[in-house]
Amino acid sequence: MKRLTIVLIAVVALLAGSASAQRVNLLCSPDLAWCEALGPAFTAATGIDLEFIRVSSQDALARLSAERANPIFDVWFGGTGDPHLIAMREGVTEFYEPEAWDDIIQNLKDQVGGTYIPLYAGAIGFVVNEEALGGAPMPTTWRDLTDPVYKGLIAMPDPNSSGTAYTILATLVQIFGEDEAFELLEGLHQNIAQYTSSGSAPGTLAGRGEVAIAIQFMHDGIKFANQGFPLTVYAPDEGVGYEIGGLSLVANAPNRDAAIAFINWALTPEAQQIAALQGDSFQIQSNANTVQHPLAPNFDEINLIDYDFDRFGTPEVREQIVGRWTNEIFPQPR
Amino acid sequence: MATTPPSTPQQSGRNRLVVSGAWLPALVAAVAFLTLPFGRPGRAFFTFDPSFYPWSLGSPALWLVLGAALALLALSPLRLNTAVRGDLLLVVGSVGLAVGLGWFIATGVPFGIGAVVVLGGLGFAVGHALSESGRVQGDAFVASSILFVSLFIVLFIIYPLFTVLRAAVVVDGAFDLSQFQRTVTHPLFFFLDNPRSAIDEVGLTYRWGAAFAALSAAWAAFRRRSLPTIASRIVLGGLLGLIVGVMLYGRGALPTSLLTVAIVAPTCTLLGLAFALLGQRSRFAPVRRSLDVISVLPIITPPFILAFAMIFLLGRRGIITYNVFDLSSPFIFGIPGVAIAQILAFTPIAYLLLRGSISSLNPALEEAAQTLGADRWTTLRSITWPLVRPGLAAAFLLSMIESLADFGNPLILGGNRNFLATEVYLSLTGRFNPNEAAAYGVVLLALVLFAFFVQRWWLGGGSFVTVTGKPTSGVVTRIPVWLETTLTVVLVVWTIFVAALYLSIVVGSFAQLWGVNYTFTTRHYQDFMRAGWPVFLYTARVAAISAVPAMLLGFLVAYLVVRQRFWGRRFVEFGSLLSFATPGTVMGVAYIFAFNTGPWLMTASAAIIILALVFRNMPVAIRAAVAGLAQIDPSLEEASTMLRARSLTTMRRVVFPLLVNTLVTGLIFAFVSAMTAVSQVIFLVSPGNQLSTVLLLGWVEQGQLGRAAAMGTVLIVSMLFTIVVVLALARRIGTRLVGVEGR
After folding, report:
1. Of B118, B200, B506, B693, most Cβ neighbours within 10 A?
2. Of B142, B179, B432, B593, which to mutate for an interface test with A (greatest number of A Cβ within 10 Å)?
3. For A185-217, what is each residue's pLDDT tens digit?
4. B394 and B485 in one domain?
5. Residue B339 and residue B383 in one domain
6. Nearest alpha carbon to residue A249 among A50, A112, A64
7. Domain check: are B554 and B660 in the same one?
8. Structural domain ending residue among the three candidates B92, B120, B135
């Protein structure tokens, strides 16, 4: 028993005695490759160490809320806007006006107001593996997806676990009106092979021909296509919704100064270019001076809907739409 | 011969005890109280913040703790009857311990380094007191062990689970069942009547109920049972039929998980039995040897990866389904895929359990029955069946628990069905609802405990830890040729399929794009070295550190439960059972609830991960140690005790060397399980404390399958290597220490 105690104490001593030195703890929600590329570049630029954990934006909000009394993280980097908005409203994060605030694309700033810092924008789209369609035509509209020729050929994320899926639902509700949107979802449901728990997983399946059509963010599709998967990425004719990825300072951050240094650095054009060049991420970067990567979707050529972030970012609206999906679509037999 | 308790000579020795053994731990406690901070301001454990020393904390009650320590010190040398003095020390020590613990609970100040030493010291002092007062049979070591094991079980198993229960029914500080009610009435959880379907689910379910009731009534009548028995059979049959109906027609996580269990558990048990028969009684040595390899596969296999390998073999464009059989169906997504993955993963576990009971079947008994004129059927029913039954029940229960708790496979292969274990995770991460997560956790825990108690009732009591088999010698009867042939074919098909799966992981790790482009590349290994290697090393370190206390604690619990009789033994047994039966995601959520704020603040540290792994893997070590202890005659220990050796000495000098093999096995398995664990640690990782499996989930979610396959391959190969090397070493050490031929 004594030995056990000694061993336990030694263990705790070995492992708990870290910390000190300037460091920022990052909760990182975009692509892992991007998260990985941030650390070395940031340390090279400022001399501050960076540790990160990558979790999806949903997971991130859950963690930040759970740890609110005793935050571990300083900055929440990337991820869909809605959770950033909720976090801000619940006081889990605070708004900080960065040095580059004036350089950020005006339209993005207008959309999110003073809730979080826009980091990037990404639009929903179709990610299609033509070979796996087995001769069926490429779908060009949302309505096409309800055609029975696509039965078992479509994957999309699960609205009950993925923020991307919610953006898809909200997009459809805004284009078609709620009732018509749910009719469309009902038809779509008949064709779905798999509702994935993560937002980018549908493209993984489409790339390998397990399904032919993935509904997800275009930048994720571009990433897979860029890796060599036989995928075509485009937006349907009726239009698509989009997300504004966020950057937030955690309230009562343990390393506040380092956190602010990181936020200011992350919004510089040099830092933002890391996304596409090293990070496999092809979103539109928020700083107007950042040179956008040629593979990134050109928002001028896409029919972007006038996405109502204010309304569809509220938890009540979200709960209502996801709840209706769960009650009306999820039980549908196939 | 009347057996006297082995502690008799000790008791006479104790009466001559001049100074109570409590003085040393009491002194340590007192010194620590005055020199070390009692609390701490934040997460950092080794801070010496002046405002957290006892005198700065401004609580007069705290001085009672010091008072207790000093009083113990003063009372220790008192020339009293040892038992009376023991009682006195017991009261004083307990008061100190209770005040100390109570102070933390009342104030919510995170415990500091001083508190650990002070309360630990008081604990040892109370252990001495318990032993000297004669309230616990055994010496101070045994008494302290009992005390600390109970404390650990309360703090790291019972209390976290209690917080889950609380979170399910307490919302915003007030008792509120509505959240729980909403969860269990939500379509994600369960619904039967589906107005959008063409069939009448409720009616069909009733029909299943009626059919089962009628069948069981007919069977009971045919067996000429009494009327009340027939009536009870009708009720039971009806219930069973209703459950079957619900599983078939209901939707949501509950029926999905139940249906999966109903497919997986019997299949695993049967296949496990088949393999156990082959393993023990096959004529071919290669068959027996291949089973040894198969049996370790599930624990060395990291999560998620195998599920992807299955998609690439059995999916719509799968190598087996599409390229070989020209099938193109997404059937793999949903219950079939999850069930196949789980059967692959858990059959070896069933096999390991059944191997014990098959090898303990004494052929002489069967021969005797047949000599007495029993036919084959009677022999099977009256001799073989009762002997195999506990093993079958254990295998069934274990595969059931594993299936219910499985997290990785449903996450990847779930299709449009959802499962209980993943809902715990998704309701917390996807819907930010801790109360809902807790409600799912409670349901899951209730199901597991229900299954456990049904099994116990069916076996008519008996201890879960002591179900083990002892190998018997003697001529083994061969199984009939036709049966052996069939089973061998099953095994061969199984082996080919499993080999194909693992091979495809290795191939995937070297392919440009797993599933699409099979050009050779080492790119994924380079990526793994860059992004995954530090995490892999860290995980190995944490897993190794956690394995030692897991093994020691497991050994201690086993020793206490098997060899000692004490008040609360059932509790220790039940507590360790709980840690083993609780699904990993539930325990993970429980640790977040329990250790994120307040006195036991420990999140965002390596310590919490280690603790989670220790208590998760302790049962593995318990099982190993119990099995080992069963083979050692207690008279050896008694002899040692008679010669005045203390129990710690006996343990170290007698029991330990005899058990080296078993313990090293336990250690290795605890280490390997810790390396591949995911559900219990997924909520506990933090910056700088990242684990391979959690990273693996991130890669899988991001579609970095090549890299994930590379990490999977490294994990599988290194774990296999560890097992082989360490077990070989242990066999040699064991041989040297004991001086007998290794088994």
Report:
1. B118
2. B432
3. 999 999 998 888 888 889 989 998 889 999 999
4. yes
5. yes
6. A64
7. yes
8. B135
**Residue A44 in contact with partner chain B when CB distance is under 8 A:** no
Token duo for residue B283: 């004529």
Return d(Cα B724, Cα B712) in angstroms, integer.
18
Contact B425, A160 (CB under 8 A): no
Q: CB B549 to CB A8 under 8 A?
A: yes
Give the class (CATH, top level) of A24-121+243-297.
alpha beta
Reported ipTM exceeds the 0.85 cut? no
In a domain, B182, yes or no: no
Asked if B361 and B499 sit in the same domain, the reply is yes
Q: Is A51 helix (H, G, I), strand (E, B) or coil?
A: strand
| Lookup result for tokens 């972030």 | A309
CA atoms lying within 13 Å on the CB side of residue B202: 4
Query: Is the confidence at residue B604, as pLDDT, over 70?
Result: yes
Which residues are CB-contacts of B583 (< 8 A; sequence separation ≥ 6)?
B401, B404, B405, B407, B420, B421, B424, B441, B444, B445, B448, B679
pLDDT band at B7 (very low <50, low <70, confident <90, very high): very low
Cβ separation of B607 and A66 shorter than 8 Å? no
C-alpha to C-alpha distances, B22 to B143, B229, B280, B678, nearest whole angstrom: 12, 60, 52, 42
Among B211, B235, B250, the domain-final residue is B250
Q: What would the DSSP string read from start to end of B17-83?
A: -SS-TTHHHHHHHHHHHHHS-SB-SSS-SS---GGGSGGGTT-THHHHHHHHHHHHHHHTT--S-HH
Encoded tokens for A280: 């496999």
pLDDT in tens, B536-554: 999 999 999 999 999 999 9
Cβ-nearest to B430 among A53, A162, A203 = A162
In a domain, B6, yes or no: no
Rounded-to-integer distance, Cα A35 and Cα A222, Å: 18
Chain B contact for A26, CB < 8 A?
yes
Tell me, yes or no, whether B480 and B499 share the same domain: yes
The CATH number that applies at residue B350 is 1.10.3720.10
Tally Cβ neighbours within 10 Å of residue B335. 20
Residue B201 has pLDDT above 90, yes or no: no
Tell whether B451 and B552 lie within a shared domain. no
| pLDDT over 80 at A234, yes or no | yes
Q: Tens digit of pLDDT for each residue in B293-319?
A: 777 787 788 888 889 899 888 888 888
The torsion angles phi and psi of B170, rounded to 5 degrees, stand at -115, 115
Could you tell me if B386 and B273 lie in one domain? yes
Q: How far is A103 from chain B (nearest CA, A)?
A: 30
Indicate the average pLDDT of chain A. Answer: 88
The residue among B114, B138, B104 whose CA lies nearest residue B11 is: B138
For residue B6, pLDDT over 70 is answered with: no
Domain coverage including residue B94: 11-135
Q: Give A141-172 pLDDT, tens digit per residue.
A: 999 999 999 998 999 999 988 888 999 999 99
Model confidence at B16, pLDDT cuts 50, 70, 90, reads low
What token pair was written down for A303? 């029919």
Task: Based on the fold, state whether residues B494 and B466 are members of the same structural domain.
Answer: yes
Q: How many domains does chain B have?
A: 4
| Minimal Cβ distance to A11: which of B317, B416, B610 | B610
B179 in a structural domain: no
Q: Closest by alpha carbon to A93, among A252, A321, A327?
A: A252
Q: Is the pLDDT of residue B11 over 50?
A: no
Residue with tokens 């021909």: A209
β-bridge mates for residue A284, sequence order: A121
Please list the residues that pair with B730 across neighbouring strands.
none
Q: Which residue has the tokens 């919610």?
A: A166
What pLDDT, in 10s, does the model give residues B422-448? 998 888 877 778 889 999 999 999 998
Residue B459 φ then ψ, to 5°:
-85, -5
CATH number for B127: 1.20.120
Q: Please calculate the CA angle B642-B647-B652 and round it to the nearest 5 degrees.
A: 110
B90-105 residue pLDDT tens: 999 999 999 999 999 9
